[in-house]
Amino acid sequence: MDIIHKVTVKQILTETSKGRLVTRYQEQAAQLAKECDQLRFEMKKIERAKKYPSEKLRQHFDKELDERAEKIKLLDFQLDQLDLLPLGSELKEKEVQGISRVQVGDNWNDEIPRTIIIEDGIIKEIR
Q1: Residue 54, Cβ neighbours under 10 Å: how many?
Q2: What percent of the chain stands above pLDDT 90?
Q3: Which residues, 6+ apart, have CB-to-CB distance to 61 below 8 Å?
Q4: What is the rounded CA–CA span in Å between residue 70 and residue 66?
Q5: Using CA atoms, how far apart are residues 127 and 114, in angstroms rounded to an integer?
Q6: 59-96: per-residue pLDDT in tens?
Q7: Quick check: 30 and 76 in contact, CB under 8 A?
Q8: d(CA 72, CA 29)
């Protein structure tokens, strides 16, 4: 019988992976900042077109800006934490689905891989 299960993918922190993560977090923060600027521009554009934009519309824009600001704060926190982590630390990268074949009599705990360890894009270990 084949079963589908979740497999955690962890990354070992190296100089290379740390640099990639820093770059990715900075790019995401920059993208969110651009989106905030665009939202502010759109809001001003609407305000100029209408003398009195609706309160509901203003709340919607404020909510979108707040959400992006929170994401930027989270990315800044992740960057700070990344600086504190020593090289060789394992970081959870994502979860993927895996397929395993099981049969009657198999040891459930030994047979199904639950974690994949990656170092610089290469699978180092399957646990």
Answers
A1: 10
A2: 62
A3: 39, 42, 43
A4: 6
A5: 6
A6: 999 999 999 999 999 999 999 999 999 999 999 999 99
A7: no
A8: 5
Contact by Cβ (8 Å): 23, 80: no
- Dmax (CA) for the chain in angstroms is 74
pTM for the structure as a whole: 0.77
| Structure token digits, residue 53 | 């934009």
Query: Rounded distance, CA 36 to CA 23, Å?
Result: 20
Residue 18 in tokens? 């740390």
Q: How many whole angstroms from its chain centre is CA 33?
A: 17
- The H-assigned helical ranges of 3-127 are 15-49, 55-84, 108-111
DSSP state of 52: S
Helix (H, G, I), strand (E, B) or coil at 15: helix
Does the pLDDT value for residue 52 go beyond 70?
no
